Amino acid sequence: MKVTLSVIKADIGGWVGHSESHPEILELARQHLEKAKTNGMLIDFHVTKCGDDAQLIMTHKLGEENKEIHKLAWDVFVEGTTLAKKLKLYGAGQDLLSDAFSGNVKGMGPGVAEMEIEERTSEPVIIFMADKTSAGAWNLPLYKMFADPFNTIGLVIAPKMHDGFSFEVHDVKEHTRIIFNTPNDIYDMLVLIGAPSRYAVKAVYNAKSGEIAAVSSTQRLSLIAGRYVGKDVPVCVVRGQGSFPAIGEILEPFTNPTLVEGWMRGSHHGPLMPVSVEDSTPSRFDGPPRVIALGFQLAEGKLIGPRDMFIDKGFDEARRKANMAADYMRGHGPFEPHRLPLDEMEYTTMPQIMDKLKARFQKLEE
Ligand code: 13P
Ligand code: 13P
Ligand code: MG
């Protein structure tokens, strides 16, 4: 049976500051999606949050980029914004960059990751959702899951994975895409995806079967809007087992909390801390950046779950390491590489300061 899994998210207001989603907003989203399930548009849904980002997880038979599904999500976010404004939540509606829906939420602010799949006899999926980071945050974990045999032993010993995986990589500035076939292309691919602020892994496919293995949302709100509008905090859906990595191989990359961009004012690097949904409350310097992982088994499109995968004690050390890295990075204060390079910062006083200092700059002798 063909089923589409759509994950659509938006930051439509924080409680308090940028630290958490308000329960009434999530309840409003649940009521909307329940109605859509009752009238048959959705097979199933789950509403959750990562920090102050509201996450709509939906299954249906309408395919990817379906207007009705995108309109449903858009309406939830618009009504959620009205409620957020009433509660005077912080940054109410910040990810909605347009006033009018035009058929697809892509490019309008919300993050979208969708895959239409032929549901297997057993279909385990993991949905990663993050806050206080940006589009390229999945590059390193996806590389490890699908191309690094030191992470994923299945690449070596599982016949269905031994031919490797194909990566679709997007240049988020030029709006172009390229396909890399691993393991052959890994050195070329790493030149690009090692620069995650410019190149982001959009999707991964099993090279032999061509089946979709993972899909991420890769858009940069700051580029869409041409000014600071919050972060294009990404989501990522990964299929597990069989011709894909085992669930443990999919989660393993997060045991090393890598440095990502997006902490405090969208302008700092910090460690990506894997946490339970409950612990996705970034409050220390508005962070450090968080990632949650919900696991589901699909059954005729029904979402059997969620299981909160990072609740596992096996991730305690990763959290401790992330806290130590957070202290270390914070010690740099306003200096790079904690602070992002000037051209990457989501807002900056640079033009005003340069204007003010212009007259005081003196030419140096050659
Ligand atoms: P599959 O090949 O069925 O995915 O099993 C691998 C596994 O789960 C071992 O950890
Ligand atoms: P959000 O993108 O979650 O609103 O975070 C904004 C920020 O920069 C907090 O310091
Ligand atoms: Mg947010």
> How many β-strand runs?
15
Number of helices: 10
How much of the sequence lies in strands comes to 25-35%
Mean pLDDT: 94
Structural class: alpha+beta
Query: Cofactors and ligands present?
Result: 1,3-dihydroxyacetonephosphate, magnesium ion
Shape: globular
Low-confidence stretches: none
* Cα-based radius of gyration, to the nearest Å: 20 Å
Q: Main beta sheet, described?
A: 9 strands, mixed
Put the structure in a nutshell.
This protein has 366 residues and is of the alpha+beta class. 26% of the residues lie in helices and 27% in strands. A hairpin with a 5-residue loop joins strand 8 and strand 9.
Would you mind describing this structure in some detail?
The structure is a single chain. This protein is α+β, with helices and mostly antiparallel strands. It is built from 10 helices and 15 strands. The strands form 3 sheets. Strands 5, 6, 7, 8, 9, 10, 13, 14 and 15 form a 9-stranded mixed β-sheet that branches. A 4-stranded antiparallel β-sheet has the order 2-3-1-4, with helices on one face. The protein has a two-stranded antiparallel ribbon with strand order 11-12. A hairpin with a 5-residue loop joins strand 8 (199-206) and strand 9. Magnesium ion binds next to loops.
Attribute tags:
366 residues; alpha+beta; 9-stranded mixed sheet; 4-stranded antiparallel sheet; 10 helices; globular; binds 1,3-dihydroxyacetonephosphate; binds magnesium ion
